[in-house]
């Protein structure tokens, strides 16, 4: 059906308005290092900004960013060198394997990706720095004396604690708290609230849970420096002068691994 001259004029005005709106949106993108620039040109940190069509920053949509294949960075020699520093009787020495780590990484294609290849290597170095610190060079699977500690947040009604179950640290990043076990279980396919011990029993699942925590809570902090990743993992306990020795220990591992990967560790190493 033919359009009247008035209809054509109205459509033209609407197009002009929408075009102007797009220009305004595009001008609003001047994000902080930990923020994403959305497809509409606004800054934020949740999936609506960092997901599909994210323009820049720590985008989480698959396929974005640069980085060498994780398996070419995390060689057998690198992985085994860390593990070799743990005592022979450590349960983690046979539990943590490079292949299960790589399987977990491959299921998260944005891991080890950044604005440059060096950014990707810095994220891998950060992951292994915290892995090393949390497990004592891949020695521990479960938190020392964890069973004696209370990691049940009774105020969290979305992920209520199961009587008789303990949510202390387990796995490469020592997953803790009922709300983390519940959400990790929903995402990776295990009953985190009723069977949290599975994270310390299943070699594949232990890395799936670790990568869930990393990609949900830590990945977006990487561009802000290693200290920001420490804050994301254990900031309430260690940062702001609470436990500077632990903060420095994490940063030391990170600096060492960056050196092994041939990249500058960057700034803001502590919190």
TrEMBL record:
GO terms for biological process: cell wall macromolecule catabolic process; chitin catabolic process; polysaccharide catabolic process. Its EC number is 3.2.1.14. It comes from the Eukaryota. It catalyses: Random endo-hydrolysis of N-acetyl-beta-D-glucosaminide (1->4)-beta-linkages in chitin and chitodextrins. Residues 1-26 form the signal peptide. Residues 26-61 form the Chitin-binding type-1 domain. The keyword Lyase does not apply. Disulfide bonds join 31-43, 36-50, 90-139, 152-161, 239-271. This is chitinase.
């Amino acid at each position: 059906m033919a359009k009247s001259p008035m209809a054509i004029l109205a459509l033209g005005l609407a197009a002009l308005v929408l075009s102007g709106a797009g220009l305004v949106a595009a001008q609003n993108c001047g994000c902080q290092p930990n923020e994403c620039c959305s497809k509409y040109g606004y800054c934020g940190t949740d999936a609506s900004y960092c997901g599909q069509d994210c323009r820049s920053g720590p985008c989480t949509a698959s396929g974005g960013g640069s980085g060498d294949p994780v398996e070419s960075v995390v060689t057998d020699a690198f992985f085994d060198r860390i593990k070799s520093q743990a005592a022979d009787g450590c349960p983690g020495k046979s539990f943590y394997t490079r292949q299960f780590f790589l399987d977990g990484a491959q299921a998260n294609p944005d891991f080890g990706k950044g604005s440059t290849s060096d950014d990707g290597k810095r994220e891998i170095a950060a992951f292994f720095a915290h892995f090393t610190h949390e497990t004592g060079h891949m020695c521990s699977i479960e938190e020392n004396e964890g069973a004696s500690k209370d990691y049940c947040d009774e105020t969290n009604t979305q992920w209520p604690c199961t009587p008789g179950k303990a949510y202390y640290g387990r796995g490469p990043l020592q997953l803790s708290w009922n709300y983390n076990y519940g959400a990790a279980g929903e995402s990776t396919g295990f009953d985190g609230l009723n069977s949290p011990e599975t994270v310390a029993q299943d070699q594949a699942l232990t890395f799936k849970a670790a990568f869930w925590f990393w990609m949900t809570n830590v990945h977006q902090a990487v561009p802000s420096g290693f200290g920001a990743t420490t804050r994301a993992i254990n900031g309430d306990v260690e940062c702001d002068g609470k436990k500077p020795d632990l903060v420095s220990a994490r940063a030391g591992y990170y600096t060492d691994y960056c050196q092994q990967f041939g990249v500058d560790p960057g700034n803001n190493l502590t919190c």
